[in-house]
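Pipeline run #58 for the internal structure catalog. This entry was flagged by the ingest filter as a single-chain record with no existing model, so it goes straight to prediction. Upstream metadata was stripped on purpose; only the residue string is passed forward. Reviewer on rotation: M.T. Logging verbosity set to normal.
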Amino acid sequence: MAHETLGRGALNPYAGMRQVPSFTLVSNDVQDGEPLPSEVYAEYAGGANQSPHLHWVGFPAETKSFVVTAFDPDAPTGSGFWHWAVANIPASVTELSTGAGAANASELLPEGAITMPNEMREPAFTGAGPPEHTGVHHYWFVVHALDVAHIDIDPQATPAVLGFMMRDAVLARAIIVSTGEFGGAA
């Protein structure tokens, strides 16, 4: 799927950044270009607030760590909506299981990984919940391969600050973009 523009004018949130090679991201739960399953929606939207399984391969050999993010650029906020961000995933880890983003699932994340607060100010995954009359939203699940083993960042920093802190360390990105809309979990 081409990720330059999507749907109702949704732009690639990475288009204005330094361009890097891509690698492969697959999931048992979300598929590129397909609607989100109901489990990935927020509980208030009829879902289970469950982060999807993610598995990545083909990243550069010089990768020293990964960052995983989930972002909705179509949220009617003027700045999008960060659903999830996990930093300092060791290069030896190439998969996060379904539900690894739960607030009480630290055993599902590798030692040393930091979950940044999402837009709800919770250090966890928060599911999709597009407001009524906002059309189709595009959910960008991204694994960033970095050339540093550790990002020295305050665990209370926002995902946007994380993006700034890692910008020069990104070697490559793997992307799945799924869609969602109001009532999509029903």
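catalog note: Helices lie at 159-166.
catalog note: The CA atoms of residues 28 and 53 lie 6 Å apart.
status: ready for reviewer M.T.
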